[in-house]
């Protein structure tokens, strides 16, 4: 049984919210009483999510946003605040994975694309979220890193570089903003059963049995399990938790 939270009167901003961990987290925030802004580059996915949340009677806003474009990020955050009057919580989740690539063969265009979405995108989101939160002197931000931010895996150099970068970004910003009443942390998911992972399995870029065996719990995680970790990090229950990179990985990095 999951814990329950009361985020009534608060506002959450979630990127990559059209599917997977982002959508699960947006739903969980909404179910806990928060007004939620769902940002994603995929308009069709946002429309589907909107239909679901409308049916549940939730208070929400959908925003088409490419996190590689800082102007779009700033506009999305500003519109969230203009619509709901404040910003209390953010889950910077948008990210991509790429096929395994020999480190000596990977092109600069692929490397740059991964960094632009996975690292610079989180930098831009956090930057503009902090502009609003620091004015209120409160807030909680969770950045999505990965078990790939804590370890290395052959063939994943550019992806792991981006996710290690998220942890460094999180820790430094957390120390800067803790005295100002804003808590910043990162969540590090293991292999989670999401549409992105399903697509990787279908393309032969990931072996499901091998991924399950690599996590001591012997299964893939669920998007809802990541959502619960994010909500906890944003809740008063984590009031003394600052600058952590929390593994939610079925025990992968504990081996």
UniProtKB/TrEMBL annotation:
Record-linked CDD domains: SDR_c
Transmembrane segments: none
One function term, GO molecular function aspect: glucose 1-dehydrogenase [NAD(P)+] activity
Keywords recorded for this protein, A-Z: Oxidoreductase
EC number, as in UniProt: 1.1.1.47
Annotated InterPro entries: NAD(P)-bd_dom_sf (IPR036291), SDR_fam (IPR002347)
Keyword Plastid: no
SUPFAM superfamilies: NAD(P)-binding Rossmann-fold domains
One Pfam family matching this protein: adh_short_C2
Domain of life, per lineage: Bacteria
Family note: Belongs to the short-chain dehydrogenases/reductases (SDR) family.
Protein name: Glucose 1-dehydrogenase
Organism: Streptomyces bauhiniae
Organism lineage string: Bacteria, Bacillati, Actinomycetota, Actinomycetes, Kitasatosporales
